[in-house]
Amino acid sequence: MTDPTTGVPSPTAAGAGAAGAPAADEGHLVLRDLVKTYPGRHGAAVRGVSLSVPRGAMLAVLGPSGCGKSTTLRMIAGLVAPSAGSVLVDGKDVTGTPAHHRDMGVVFQSYALFPHMDVAGNVAFGLEMRKVPRPERERRVTEALELVRLDHLARRRVSQLSGGQQQRVALARALVVRPTVLLLDEPLSNLDAQLRTTMREEIRRIQQETGITTVFVTHDQHEALSMADRVAVLHEGRLEQLGTPQEIYERPASRFTAEFVGRANLLPATVVAAASAGEAAAAEVEVPGIGRITAQGASPAPGEPVTVLLRPHRVVLDAHDPDGGIARGTVLTAGYTGETVAYRVRVGGSGPELDVELPSGSHRPSAPGAEVGVSWQQGAARLVPAAPRSGGDAEAADGGGPAGDRDPRGGAA
Amino acid sequence: MSAAAPGTETGSDTGSTTAPGAERPAPGRWTPGRTAAALLLPGLVALLLTYAMPLVWVARMAFNEPLPGGAIRQTLTLGTFADVLTDGHYWRVIWQTVELGALVTVFTLLLSYPLALFLARTTTRWRGLLIALAVTPLLISSVARTFGWMAILGNQGVVNKTLQSVGIIDTPLQLANNLTGVVIASTEIYMPFAILVMISGFGRLDPELERAAASLGAGRLAVLRRVVLPLTLPGVLTAGLLVFVLSLSGYVTPRLIGGGRVFVLATEIYDEAITALNWPVAAVLSMLLLVLFGLVIVVYTRLQRFVERRILGERGAAS
Amino acid sequence: MRTGPAGRAAWVALLVVLYLFLLAPIIVVLVVSFDDATFLRFPPEGFTLDAYRQVFANDDFRSAIQVSAVTASITALLAVVTGVPAALALSRVPFRGREAMESAFLSPLLVPNIVLGLALLVLFAPIPLTDTYTGLILAHLGITIPYVVRTVCASLAGADPRAEEAARTLGADTFTVARRIILPTILPGVVSGGVIAFLLSFDETVISLFVSGQNVTPLPVAVLQYVEYRSDPAVAALSVCLVVLSVVAVVFVERSLGLRRSLRSG
After folding, report:
1. C6 interfaces chain B, CB cutoff of 8 Å
2. Residue A229, min C-alpha distance to chain C (Å)
3. I need a surface site. Which of A151, A306, A344, B278 has the fewest CB within 10 A?
4. What GO MF terms are annotated (chain A) (predicted)?
């Protein structure tokens, strides 16, 4: 397994974000133990989030609705006052600075354009507030509109714009003041699927052209993985994992991340022996119904229960040689989705059920009831560490339920 | 409320290094509580002066003793209440007030329901105009509208003139200066209120439901009785409450159309206060009117809860 | 409900009759106001504008129109000045007891005008504020503020609070946000509230009956007292003027905010 990097200097040890406060002072934007509690509501919305964003990087804050990601963004913007903790920009504490002195560009989910102004008026507003002289203001408004390719619509009323155009105006309005940090709250969720893909590339292009430190909040894993340099996974107000998109997907630091990002088979297992340590750590584990297999990742002591992650698309089925694989399986269901065929396979007679995804066209589809050989690519099986803070819960859920969670989101909800 | 900017706590341990020009609100300044107080203050003072204080004053007045010739003895007595409540005249007034209110409510609801049903369901592009036409009278001076009814219902009015010229009647029908006229005019005057409330309350009337019921074999009457009526009943009840309450306290129409022969609480309060200068009795009558309001609202709340339960029950049985 | 042609005709006929009933007094007043008789009759037999001339020749009516216009203008202004900040607080500032405050601001609508009129008389007479402009304006203020609060709240509910936050992140302080973002957005609601307040004050009869007198007599009171003893086309002409005033206001409110949102009872 490769260790991909995106060329962005990493301020924290990969995947260790959840373990403790990172060495925060290196980042351009740093959150230190941010907490938000709302009076009268049970539990905190955000329960101590610490992370750091390097200058010029794009961080995605990823999590299901209600995980505290929007609250975190609003605390960075100064729109919500944290109950505890601090926000640092360039090493300076801005926690007490009101929103209008923070110099952060924010793009809201609803775009929040000023309905009584035209496109240029919206974009010029921030410059007016900064008392930028008119000639320069006009030049910069034009520049910003050119950046988002809307210079031909400067005099249009915002109510006459399409969703994608409104989105671009919101982006131009936030960027024109050259903010120190750009914050995007679910920027693409109000667009239709096709436009979303275009805007994804567009936002990425603009961010790289301007080199502005950016934080965006999303519940969409594809958005997070494809746009961001680094992804912070948030769950119930806590940071589950901070890492590059590859790290988040390939080496999830918790059961929650494994299930939330991508589809996952999670199998309970018992450690037999640890193979080696360090980056190439692996262990031999016993999976009930499958047998002994090798899984990548650091493992606890022999005899301890662990969870093994198998991504559905890395499993291989062989219909010709049911006994030639790692285990023998029976196809339960097969569903054609166009690009892939999704199978559900029971391993052994009464073993765990696995979700398997094979590219359609690469194989002759198997019908339900067919016997197949089940195997997976080298290094596809991966140990998922027990959740750092709620490890006990995860283990308890493992022991009781059947092997392999059906719905990757269901278990986390 | 001490929801001071939390930055004041966290900021202090980092030396609060914000830019010198930055606006740092002093602790406690412009908290939500104080902002709200500042914004609400003018309105609250105005309401205190023009609404709360007068009500307290009139309530206090009900416990004073009226003396002959319009004088008032400042005291604390239930005597005026006792005098009013043992006087048959006032009981007749209360009865006539309730009777008028009930009649007006029934007729208003009957006449408003078809219009509201039509306006809630129609898809014509004239819908906006038709709604405005039905609701606009609400904003037109009730004196002007009552005067219009005088011109219609009077002995020389539209109705009598027309009927006489056609030869149906010889002597004019007595449509004004009595309860009949007041009921007719009040019904029209409160219809816009009822229609407005009904249209708002008919929101849950989904045409799909009617089509679904029809597709299940329900005839037109069955659809009306089993689907439309139960779903619109809460809106009708709310409209009924509003109309009843408004007509209990109506003054202009009973006075003008009643021609001094229809006595209701409102006209009685005015006459006691202005003509007889008997403020304590007028105050007692006002209190009685408020009690009547309270009773109506209690009955309405009970009825509304009953209806909601019945509808939910019917839905449960249908599934 | 699909109906046959006969049922449909009956249904349309019923609706037409109901509309006629609803608009009957207004139609009759309009027709009578152009009659050339000196007493009320129907149908009219001649056409003249004498009735309208009489209205403006009558000193009582002229001064009553003036009293009502002045009272309604000042009342509307005061209602807007006090009601708009209150609506802002109620819809945008999260403070404890907000719901109670909201009920307090709408509660004058629950008290019958006849009771409020008497109450104002009892409070104002000894000061003495009855039969003065001040008393009349104060009396009207209490019943108009709730309408302004409600229209402006409806307007604010339709405005995206995120736009205000966006302005803050762009460098606007609280005052600038209010001036540059909130006020322009809710302006239609504010104007509608003011227009409704003006109209309510201009048409207010019962409360005015208690607090007005010989010196300061607003128009509805003057008309009421006139109609009790005489009925002639002059009153009809005056009524038509009131109707026209209302219709103009209604059209304005409907255009800028939507009538139903402004008048919804509650």
Report:
1. no
2. 25
3. A151
4. ABC-type polyamine transporter activity; ATP binding; ATP hydrolysis activity
Q: Which two tokens mark C194?
A: 């003011």
Contact between A180 and A90 (Cβ < 8 Å): yes
| Beta-carbon separation of B42 and C81 below 8 A | yes
Q: Which domain holds residue B218?
A: 88-318
A58-112: pLDDT as tens digits: 999 999 988 899 999 999 999 988 999 999 999 899 998 899 999 999 999 989 9
Q: Nearest CA of chain A to the CA of B132: how many Å? A: 26
**Record: contact A108-C166, CB cut-off 8 A:** yes
The per-residue pLDDT of chain B, averaged, comes to 82
- Asked if residue B20 belongs to a domain, the reply is no
The model's pLDDT over A344-403, given as tens digits with 9 standing for 90+, comes to 999 887 778 899 998 887 777 888 888 888 988 878 889 887 644 433 333 333 333 333
What is the CATH T-level fold of the domain C59-263, as seen in this structure?
MetI-like fold (1.10.3720)
Q: Are residues B51 and B150 in the same domain?
A: no
- Listed range (A274-278, A288-292, C259-263) with the worst mean pLDDT: C259-263
Residue type, A257: T
pTM of the model: 0.78
- pLDDT (tens digit per residue) in B251-266: 999 999 998 889 999 9
At residue C260, the pLDDT reads 56
**Which domains, from first to last, does chain A contain?**
24-255 (3.40.50.300), 263-408 (2.40.50.140)
ipTM of the shown complex: 0.85
| A chain contacts of residue B26, beta-carbon cutoff 8 Å | none
Which CATH number does the domain housing residue B280 bear?
A: 1.10.3720.10
d(CA A250, CA A314): 11
Q: Which of A79, A80, A131 to mutate to test the interface with C (most CBs of C within 10 A)?
A: A79
Q: Which of residues 90-129 of C touch A (CB under 8 A)?
A: none
Angle at A397 between CA A396 and CA A399, to 5 degrees: 65
- Across the interface, whether the CB atoms of B10 and A83 are under 8 A apart is answered no
Residue C77 has a pLDDT of: 97
CA distance A105 to A88: 16
**B98 and B52 fall within a common domain:** no
How many domains does the structure of chain B reveal? Answer: 2
